[in-house]
Amino acid sequence: MRGAGKSTGRPSLTGFAEIKDVIAVCKWVCENLSSDRILLVGFFSRISLALAYALFNLSINWDLKICFLSLDLNYFSGSCILFFYETAGYLEILVCPNNGKGLGAPIAGSAVDGIKEVIGYVSIGYPFGMFASILFGRHHKGILKSPKPKLFVMGTRDGFTSVKQLRKKLSSAAGRVETHLIEGTSHFQMEGAEFDNQMVTLILTFHLIFIGI
Q1: For strand 90-98 and strand 37-43, is the pairing parallel, antiparallel, or unpaired?
Q2: Most buried in the list 124, 131, 182, 186, measured by CB within 10 Å?
Q3: Where are the domains of the chain?
Q4: Residues of the signal sequence (predicted)?
C-alpha cells in the first residue's frame, strides 16, 4: 500500500489516491483469490495490533478461519491491514486501511461503490464533525449515497463528531444504516485494547445479521 513498508509511494493529504489503492487491492484479491464478497472496515485513526489478534481469537468461536494477507502498522508512513476468512467455501475480505493521516474510515467509505464485490461497510469513528469535514467532507457523499449496508460505530464523547452531527448526516444516507454508540467513550479511547473484543464482535455481528454468510 501507498507509503507502507518498502512502497515508493507517499500517503496523500486528501486520501483520494488511497481510494484507488484500496480498489486495486480488492480487485487483485477477487481475481487472484477467487473471492466475490468483501466487507470493507475503515478506522479513522490507527488500528492496534491487539485488535488484529482479537479478531483472530474471537473468530474461533464464530467458526471462521482468519489469515493475515498484509500487515503494516507504521502510523506515520501509512498503514493497511487486510484480513480474510473462509466460510462455506468462499472468502470474505476485511480491509482496514489508514494512510497515516487518520483517513481510514473515509477512504474505505469512498471505495465502497468502486468495487462491485463489496457487500457492506463498517466505520469506526467516521469524521462527520464540522471541523473534520473541512478536510474529509469530500469523502462523505460516496458512502452516504451507497445503497450497500453500513454500520457506524462511535463513542458518545468522540471529540471530532457529536452524536447529533452523526445522526443528521446519516438521516440522508441511502440503503440500510446501523449505528452503535459507545457511551462515554472518546474517539481515541476506542483504539485501546479494552475495546478490541467489542469492535470485533460488532463487525462480525453486523456481517452475520445484516449481510449474511
Answers
A1: parallel
A2: 124
A3: 16-208
A4: none
List the CATH code of the domain at 16-208.
Answer: 3.40.50
Measured from the Cβ of residue 64, the count of other Cβ atoms closer than 10 Å reads 19
DSSP 108-154: HHHHGGG-TTEEEEEEES---SHHHHHHHGGGHHHHHS--S-EEEEE
Q: What is the four-CA torsion angle of 170, 171, 176, 181, rounded to 10 degrees?
A: 50
Q: How far apart are CA 118 and CA 88, in angstroms?
A: 18
Minimal CA–CA distance to 198: which of 53, 51, 34? 51
pLDDT digits (tens, 9 = 90+) for 39-94: 888 876 555 556 666 666 666 565 555 544 443 433 333 444 455 544 444 445 55
Give the DSSP H/E element, type plus range, for residue 198: helix 196-206
